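Render this sequence as a predicted structure.
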Amino acid sequence: MKRCLTIFAVLILLVFVAQPAHALKAIVATIAASEVRVIGIQAEKKQPIHWEGTQVTTSDKFGLFHFSTTDLPIDCVGQLSDGVSTIEVVVFGCTTEQVVGGGVPQTGQTTSWLEGDDGDLQIGLPWPDPRFTDKFDGTVIDNLTGLIWTKSANLYGYTTFSDALTSCSSCGEGGYTDWRLPNVRELQSLIDYGQVQNNKPILPAGHPFTGPFGPGDQWYYWSSTSQGVSSAFCISFENGFMWSGSAGNVWCVRGGN
């Protein structure tokens, strides 16, 4: 009998030892008002909790945690980690349309000259970090809008509007065939207005795009927002100006709603 009890005790000990110290779990993951809200359990106690690589909170002494964030993954599946375990969490109620169209983003302007100006208030959806993901196949994802751009911002050079449309429709970068010329809002979404006083082109710092950009009128890029058979709105990546052009550079995009 004593031997049986000893064997039983050893078996019980082995069962407990074999079990993981914890099993990170999200019991709630939903979207509301353009924010992801997560409640989790069984995390490492009093440890940083990361969502999509960014620390969002710290677990308590019981391994419980909760947080809200505007970092909504493009595919609606977020990566959650407590430093020991990493799991993928499906965000309930999330759609790719919400990721792309969840609100008006910030402009990137952080310098303020007068109270109440854009640099002072910085109104809008904050930019994700990183802003862009290089897919290393000639394409780049904008994690703010969900749009996919050609990594080269100058595949086709300085050309006419009709040639710009044709060039994008026949583009094959990354093996995709649904490229198009961006509309004027999509093109403007790339501009970091905080860079106007500092760097050219005025793209977010650390962007992965390649040029060349400029000089002169060649800072201007075609949008698909046309004003006639041979004219459309162009955006300057030197200063953010928009004008009705007759020639411009070509930058192709895919995705959107």
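Summary. Residues 2-99 form a domain with the Immunoglobulin-like fold (CATH 2.60.40). The chain has two domains: 2-99, 129-254.
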